[in-house]
Specification:
This protein is α+β, with helices and mostly antiparallel strands. It has one domain (3-116). It has helices spanning 3-31, 36-40, 50-54; strands spanning 95-97, 100-104, 114-116. A 3-stranded antiparallel β-sheet has the order 1-2-3, with no helix packed on it. The relative contact order is 0.20.
């Protein structure tokens, strides 16, 4: 994959995720947003969610079977690429959610939900 194709793929994915997230939020607002107690409890991103699938999100990076995704990025071996080492994972907001260490991901596919610290997605970027 060359640089141009990579950036085109990233832009298309981010655009699709943004549109999907906006549609989901609009639908939630239309339905009344649920109960306040339900929205206050942190929730994990479901890997089966279409937005999560768009970025190949998994709750354990060892679940990625596609060899094309198992690449070194920014000098970091794939085995060491986990959400807790990503720039979009706020370590200061890490908590236990559903028995797993997690934090609210800043990427649109998460839409206010948390990702597991051992997880991974195709938008992984090395923490500065």
């Amino acid at each position: 994959m060359n640089r141009r194709t990579f950036f085109q793929s990233v832009i298309a994915t981010v655009g699709a995720v943004t549109v999907f997230s906006s549609l989901v939020e609009a639908e939630e607002r239309r339905r009344g947003g649920g109960t306040p107690a339900a929205s206050a409890a942190p929730q994990l991103v479901d890997p089966k969610d279409p937005a999560a699938k768009a970025v190949s999100y998994v709750q354990k990076n060892t679940e990625i079977k596609d060899k094309n995704l198992q690449t070194d990025r920014q000098g970091v071996k794939f085995a060491n690429q986990k959400c807790n080492g990503c720039q979009f994972y706020p370590k200061d907001k890490e908590a236990t959610v559903a028995g797993k260490k997690a934090a609210p991901c800043q990427l649109p596919f998460a839409a206010g939900r948390s990702v597991v610290s051992e997880g991974w997605c195709s938008s992984w970027a090395k923490r500065a």
